[in-house]
Design goal:
By secondary structure, the chain is mostly helical.
Length: about 260
């Protein structure tokens, strides 16, 4: 048989240009019934070293934009740009729409055992790398109650325990503002303190973890986990270092202004 296609033949160009659309339509015909449908998805591109490969690449981009073939959680079919790959099961739709100029709904989620192929197809992926931007979003953090904080703690502990790169996950969580303090502000772990006997007499300006949250941490024995995120017991030394000196400096700046 032939070993190579004639890259200059117009007939071959027409055939190649039709393949992506027909192929994705074929995938769409069975993707709801077979959860491993993604295993037969072709590459978005095989390079562009000749005319036929370039024609395939352009046709594939067009087909991915137009054809719905990804089964959602409510069993409808989604186009690639309509789907959310929530690889950590946390994605906040309202934040995503605002932060990334999307128009997702709760019907945009889909389940899959392997999301790598969908990244290639341009499906929006919410993973651990997008946690910090979410927790930097003021409306998102301002709405965190003590109960919500406890739910987030459970989620983060499970996320870190199940991760193959725990150190990397912990470095991300250190920068997330999710801990509710006694004054109901929400801060990063490294900005908070565990209540101690010393804090009972020196709690002015001190961001102590909220008593409800602290009780939960004690019950679940999560002290070491939080210490790895930078939470410290309030003591004379760190009170002077992090609270007293900073407050005096801020007061001085206000006077100078």
């Amino acid at each position: 048989g032939r070993q190579h296609l004639d890259t200059d033949a117009e007939w071959n160009k027409v055939i190649i240009s039709k393949i992506p659309e027909e192929y994705l339509k074929w995938v769409a015909s069975f993707s709801k019934k077979h959860s491993n449908y993604y295993e037969v998805l072709p590459k978005k591109s095989y390079g562009s070293t000749n005319d036929l490969l370039k024609i395939y690449e352009d046709a594939m981009k067009d087909a991915i934009e137009r054809i719905a073939f990804i089964p959602s959680r409510n069993n409808s079919l989604l186009k690639a740009n309509e789907a959310i790959n929530d690889s950590i099961d946390f994605a906040p739709v309202a934040h995503i729409n605002k932060e990334y100029s999307k128009h997702f709904t709760l019907s945009s989620f889909f389940d899959c055992d392997n999301y790598q192929k969908f990244d290639e197809y341009g499906v929006f992926c919410f993973n651990e790398n997008k946690l910090k931007p979410y927790f930097d979003d003021a409306p998102a953090t301002e709405s965190i109650t003590t109960n919500r904080c406890i739910d987030i703690i459970d989620f983060f502990v499970l996320l870190s325990d199940n991760s193959e790169s725990k150190d990397r996950i912990m470095s991300i969580l250190k920068e997330c503002r999710f801990l509710v303090c006694e004054d109901n502000t929400v801060k990063k772990p490294s900005e908070c303190y565990f209540p101690t006997e010393y804090s009972n007499e020196n709690n002015t300006y001190v961001p102590l973890i909220h008593s409800t949250v602290f009780s939960y941490i004690k019950t679940k024995r999560l002290f070491d986990w939080f210490k790895n995120l930078g939470v410290e017991n309030l003591s004379v030394s760190n009170y002077l270092r992090d609270v007293y000196c900073k407050q005096n400096y801020n007061d001085t700046q206000k006077i100078n202004i």
